[in-house]
Hints:
single chain; alpha/beta; two-stranded antiparallel ribbon
Amino acid sequence: MQITTEPAVRVYNAQGVHEIILVCEHASAFIPEQYQNLGLDNNAAQSHAAWDPGAANTAHYLADRLNAVLVESTISRLVYDCNRPPESATAMPAKSEIFTIPGNRNLSDEQKQYRIENYYNPFKAQLARSIEQHPVAAVLVTVHSFTPVYNGIKRPVEIGFLHDQNSQLAETMLDVASGYNIQLNQPYGIADGVTHTLKLHGVENGLHNVMIEIRNDLIQSDSQCRQMAEHLELWLTQSLPKLETQPRLTVE
């Protein structure tokens, strides 16, 4: 298994040959020492606001099963959310759900630019390279998790398949998947600004794409992550043959 790491980004199974490129933008809760935990206590710094618990472990198992490349962030999304463009107010949020982030208040343009250059740009560039250099990349799949209770409201949905302009893969997976409460564009959708990676690296490159959201109480243990990866592999491999061929665009 070849693993390569650069600042803010890690490539797992870099020599994977599957047509799917996997992405996990919120794989890590790591906050560099210079940010002094962003002023958060340890519970908040390890909460779902800081990363997507279980998502990276599930994505690793899925990468192994598919023999697919996986590109993942190594920095907490509270430092920089790699699924947001620099102009987004949620790229470096001052508040996330019930959590206030003191270290993100009143950031100067210089401070923001430092994070963009050191965390977002390396991630963006590596994902672009992984797609461009892959001989058969045709599908982009991002793996996320979400909290069962958000702002005090319980979420009945267990798995969401999210899409932006191209809904083919999300809708096809919804048709073949079973065993869970699965919904399209839930618990988030386009209006929530969560499809940045899908648009920039999927739609613009002519790749079929889907964002998979898993309720994090379903992937708390290693065995749960392994089981979820088995389900995802099955649903993906059942779905891919049903998709219409899309032209592969050149990455600039």
